[in-house]
Amino acid sequence: xxxxxxLTNMGPVPKSLAERFWAKVDQSGGPDAxxxxxxxxxxxxxxxxxxxxxxxxxxxxxxxxRAAFELAYPGLLQDGECVLHRCDNPICCNALHLFAGSHAxxxxxxRLKGRGTKVKGELVWNAVLTENLVRIIRGAYAKGDVxxxxxxxxLGFKRGVxxxxxxxxxxxxxxxxxxxRPGQQGRLPDSLWTRKETP
Length: 199
Hints:
This protein is α+β, with helices and mostly antiparallel strands. Helices cover about 30% and strands about 10% of the residues. Helix 5 packs across helix 6 (about 160-165).
């Protein structure tokens, strides 16, 4: 479990920190709307800010929604509690849309909102392949006419991407058929389909 340091553990919030924080929150939608964070975001799409000082060792990164909650309700969060979104908008900083809960509450809220299901294939945010490219890679390799290295180089991917597809480490959900589906893009150059004769 990730230990989250609380903003209030650092003592009184300097006015400059609160001013700096709210300057990065768009409140133009009104008191009932989401207030999107306009600053940096972490890898999961949540607003993120840095507080504290490197000099005294108090510097830490925290989620903008947590800072918004602690600024709106000082001292309300207990150690180990999470800040959850009613609106399910990870960059929202409107304290009316936020509530405190345990880690278990956070996981239950995630499942209730349908985010607990694992996405796969083209729906993964950093997917570099499509289902049709996976079928092409598998079909070309199954014919025995082309190596993993040549496939990777021709398609512009690292060899590990092709290897993982062929070994079933990734894209297991894609069933192999005769090739790309009708009307779908994806074709290897003809030069890959012709076997070179060895002298």
